[in-house]
Specification:
It comes from Paracholeplasma manati. This protein is of the alpha/beta class. It is built from nine helices and eight strands.
Length: 249
């Protein structure tokens, strides 16, 4: 695949932003590629997936445009005070990609950790656009992070992002219930390793989806919160995303 490094100015963020894009080397005339947004986690950037996994090799035989933006530590949301990242992503980045590359309207999205939260947030907020979403070791409830003693140093930042409690458009459970009322739900695949510090957060969200009778696939398997797990996770997710023969687990 061809790898393209891009930078453009965001009005919403009031700064230059960077992203990495992968497209097939043999792009055909009038071909429309599936847009596939891939999100990094906290402390990461747009280069993480190409540096730390073999994503380019895994996708080499698929007709896809892979978009990997820098999400800073913004939790892919519009902050109460600070960055307006959700607006940047939905109102600027997606149209930018659609104007620059030959992509279809319906997109897939995947993310890890903070990016898992972002992937579900974007898909549940825009189910007509993001029709399939994957979370690898995702944060299902930012308030779960607030309660972890060794995460206490992030509390002031979380208050600026979400306020004192995560509610409304930033609450994945609220978004699920809103979609149930409108009868529009993206397809969901979620994974978490059994040694991950987010395992209970994920188990709680799985129970919520079951209680609400939301169709989904959840994989709890062996692993920790690290790139070894996420590299394996994306290999499992790709056949599910692209409707290929695959036995998950």
């Amino acid at each position: 695949m061809s790898k393209i490094q891009l930078s453009f100015f965001s009005q919403a963020l009031e700064m230059n932003t960077s992203l990495t894009v992968l497209v097939p080397d043999d792009l055909k005339k009038n071909e429309q590629l599936r847009p596939f947004y891939v999100l990094h986690g906290y402390n990461g950037d747009h280069q993480d997936w190409t540096r730390l996994t073999a994503i380019e090799r895994y996708l080499r035989n698929r007709r896809v445009c892979v978009i990997m933006p820098s999400g800073f530590n913004a939790y892919y949301t519009d902050h109460v005070v600070g960055l307006q990242y959700y607006t940047y992503f939905t109102k600027e980045l997606v149209p930018f990609i659609e104007n620059l590359f030959p992509v279809q309207k319906e997109a897939y999205i995947l993310g890890l950790s903070m990016g898992g939260y972002g992937a579900l947030k974007f898909a549940l907020s825009n189910p007509k656009k993001f029709v399939k979403a994957v979370s690898l070791s995702g944060v299902m409830n930012p308030d779960f992070i607030r309660a972890i003693p060794w995460m206490a140093h992030r509390l002031p930042q979380f208050d600026l992002m979400f306020g004192k409690k995560t509610t409304g458009k930033n609450d994945l459970r609220h978004l699920v219930e809103k979609n149930l009322k409108s009868n529009r739900m993206p397809e969901l695949l979620l994974t978490c390793g059994d040694k991950d510090f987010l395992i209970e957060d994920n188990r709680s969200f799985e129970q919520f989806l079951k209680e609400k009778q939301v169709p989904h696939t959840f994989i709890f398997d062996d692993g920790e919160h690290n790139w070894d797990y996420w590299d394996r996770g994306i290999q499992k997710a790709l056949p599910w995303l692209f409707d290929e023969n695959n036995t998950l687990g």
